[in-house]
Specification:
The protein is of the alpha/beta class. About 40% of the residues lie in helices and about 20% in strands.
Length: about 240
């Protein structure tokens, strides 16, 4: 069984798949036993065909296909459910996350307390448009004030977390944007780690500032309610 599963959700990312696969393999081969789980969210281009062809060059690659488009959070969760590794690393499929940062996250995990179950990437030098950086800055400030998750960047796609802890979290659409708060709600600790950030390799973004804001308001209220209503009780076997 692999020690690590790299989960990558994609929707219409056919040109970004080959270079990102090559970078993942270069970063991890010889360092850790790993698998790569791509989840195709019912792409309308030939992303699925590109992934199928890539299996010949990457024996670590497994492909999960959504029969209907379901969004990034569902793709991540289904990838984690299909994964066999005890720890999961996630990457966005557009190439903006650098797979070379995964070994750094693993090294950070190995020297940290076991209570830390999520290592969240922190894009200290973002390579996005000015409007996107501005919107993200304000969204992070509002989220941090409301949820008190003590995390400077929850939108970064590169993360490392324990599979069992993730699957124990409440599931809802867009949950991937609130993993630090949800992990803390479950009683675990979170550490933010500075990571590289790059321009999109090819294609166009699937989000804009308006649709992020509209779903973000409802999600923030929902997560705040979950935190307020949470209750943890220590147990022992007798």
């Amino acid at each position: 069984m692999p020690a690590l599963s790299v989960v990558v959700p994609v929707f219409n990312e056919r040109d970004n798949i080959p270079p990102l696969l090559a970078e993942i393999a270069a970063a991890l081969r010889g360092r850790v036993d790993f698998e790569i789980v791509y989840v195709d969210d019912a792409s309308k281009d030939d992303s699925l065909a590109v992934l199928a062809a890539a299996k010949a060059a990457y024996p670590e690659l497994r492909v999960v296909r959504h029969l209907a488009q379901s969004g990034q959070s569902t793709a991540i969760r289904n990838g984690v459910k299909a994964a066999r590794g005890a720890w999961i690393a996630t990457l966005d499929g557009d190439g903006q996350n650098d797979p070379a940062d995964i070994p750094k996250l693993l090294a950070m995990r190995d020297e940290s307390p076991a209570a830390i179950k999520l290592y969240a990437g922190w894009r200290v030098n973002r390579r996005d448009s000015g409007s996107k950086r501005w919107a993200s800055k304000w969204a992070n400030a509002i989220r941090s004030r409301l949820l008190r998750d003590d995390t400077p960047d929850t939108g970064c796609g590169i993360k490392l977390f324990e599979r069992a802890s993730f699957l124990d979290l409440p599931y809802f659409d867009h949950m991937h944007r609130f993993l630090p708060a949800l992990m803390q709600r479950a009683g675990w600790q979170v550490k933010s780690v500075p990571v590289n950030h790059r321009p999109r390799g090819s294609g166009i973004s699937k989000y804009n500032n308006l649709n992020r804001a509209l779903v973000g308001i409802a999600d923030l209220r929902g997560v705040a309610w979950l935190i307020k209503r949470s209750k943890r009780t220590a147990t022992e076997e007798v």
